[in-house]
Write a structure and sequence with these properties.
Blueprint: E1 3-8, E2 16-22, E3 32-35, E4 41-45, E5 51-56, E6 65-70, E7 75-83, E8 86-93, E9 97-102, H1 117-120, E10 123-126, E11 131-136, E12 143-147, E13 153-155
Antiparallel strand pairs: 1-2, 3-4, 4-5, 5-6, 7-8, 8-9, 9-10, 11-12, 12-13
Length: about 170
């Protein structure tokens, strides 16, 4: 549990382990892995953690871990989105928020600390209770959320700071 393995499948009958990483505690499973459509980044998260790990998807960069973004609640689902030519991450959080952040373009100086807010530019917006899955259209920038009610809802990219969210108001 919690181990991320990268294999070279050039010879499919004999896959070769290229790299293995452990991002979470032993009992914390990886529940979400997404590759960016532009072929540059991979995000890794767990329902039991408030962190999203971002790493390179390219072999020539040796699958370098760029760092991690720490949100205010556990990450239920996350994916990449392209808005105005900038690769961003959107995530459904366990506290009924949709979070957005800029994806890093290179490794941070200290990968043991979260990517600073001044670089990640996190933003939030309230979403309906019970939402668990984020789906983004890379081309149009549309964000769709679904959950317990089995309805597919379209949301705008988050723009509010966490401290300005009114948890008592309807989304």
């Amino acid at each position: 549990m919690g181990a991320f393995r990268i294999y070279d499948l050039t010879n499919r009958s004999r896959p070769r382990l290229v790299q293995q990483c452990r991002f979470f505690e032993d009992s914390t499973p990886i529940t979400n892995i997404k590759a960016s459509p532009d072929g540059k980044l991979v995000l890794i998260s767990s329902n039991d953690s408030n962190n999203i790990i971002i790493m390179s998807q390219r072999g020539e960069e040796e699958y370098n871990v760029y760092g991690f973004i720490q949100f205010c609640a556990n990450v239920l689902s996350a994916c990449f989105i392209n808005i105005d030519g900038v690769t961003r991450i959107v995530a459904v959080l366990s506290n009924n928020l949709l979070a957005g952040a800029d994806a890093p373009t290179e490794a941070t100086s200290n990968r043991m600390e979260p990517i600073p807010d001044r670089e990640a530019n996190p933003a939030y917006r309230k979403i309906d209770k019970g939402c668990v899955l984020a789906i983004a259209n890379w081309v149009t920038g549309d964000i769709y959320i679904t959950g317990d009610d089995k309805l597919l809802k379209k949301y705008d990219y988050p723009t509010e700071l966490l401290m300005s969210i009114d948890f008592k108001r309807v989304p």
